[in-house]
């Protein structure tokens, strides 16, 4: 009895497309920019609205912390870049673009580094704040575990190799598509 039980053994097409473990990746990258935006909004808007930012950044106040303003603006800027990159990552994912795995890996590797650098910067600006508080440890651990799982998946998965093959559309391709319609 030499018959194959797996109908897919001779057909690699079953690995093409946004299926399998890529469904989890898709869910994650689809909700990620919205969660990050919400967290950014809920963390920083109150600081600006209740006057805390002014008291912490103005030398006239006793609560003044040197370099706090720079720290906040850099955190906001980097988080905004992460949000924009996450939306672009979502576009690359759903268009099955060949750049998706590379950008996904870059963001997955960057995020824990950013969290560690931010924790160090916060401790540098505010030495009384522990560098590794409970929330920071949770965020860093979560991002490292995610990177350890998903970076090798992006590098070794046959599904990833067979799915993300579409080239980046050029300006000429977009103009041609506009002229045709």
Model description:
- With about 180 residues, this protein is an all-alpha fold.
- It has one domain.
- Helix content is about 70%, strand content about 0%.
Produce the secondary structure layout.
Elements: H1 22-49, H2 52-57, H3 68-94, H4 100-125, H5 134-156, H6 158-163, H7 171-180
Q: Approximately what portion of the residues adopt beta-strand conformation?
A: under 5%
**Tally the helices: what do you get?**
7
Largest sheet: none
How confident is the prediction overall: mean pLDDT? 85
What is the total number of structural domains? 1
What's the count of strands? 0
Structural classification: mainly alpha
Catalogue the unreliable spans.
Answer: none
Protein name: DUF2569 domain-containing protein
Organism: Kangiella geojedonensis
Transmembrane segments: 21-41, 71-91, 103-120
Keywords: Membrane, Transmembrane, Transmembrane helix
Short account of what is shown:
With 181 residues, the protein is an all-alpha fold. It is built from seven helices and no strands.
What brief labels describe this structure?
elongated; mainly alpha; about 70% helix; 7 helices; about 180 residues; about 0% strand; membrane
């Amino acid at each position: 009895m030499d018959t194959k039980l797996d109908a897919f053994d001779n057909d690699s097409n079953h690995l093409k497309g946004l299926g399998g473990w890529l469904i989890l990746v898709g869910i994650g990258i689809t909700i990620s920019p919205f969660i990050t935006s919400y967290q950014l909004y809920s963390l920083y808007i109150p600081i600006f609205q209740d006057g805390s930012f002014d008291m912490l950044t103005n030398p006239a106040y006793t609560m003044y912390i040197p370099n706090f303003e720079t720290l906040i603006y850099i955190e906001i800027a980097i988080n905004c870049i992460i949000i924009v990159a996450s939306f672009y990552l979502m576009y690359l994912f759903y268009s099955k673009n060949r750049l998706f795995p590379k950008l996904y890996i870059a963001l997955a590797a960057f995020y824990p580094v950013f969290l560690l650098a931010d924790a160090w910067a916060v401790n540098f600006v505010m030495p009384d704040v522990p560098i590794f508080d409970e929330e920071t440890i949770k965020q860093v651990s979560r991002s490292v575990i995610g990177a350890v799982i998903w970076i090798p998946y992006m590098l070794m998965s046959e599904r990833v190799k067979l799915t993300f093959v579409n080239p980046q559309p050029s300006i000429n391709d977009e103009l041609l598509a506009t002229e045709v319609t």
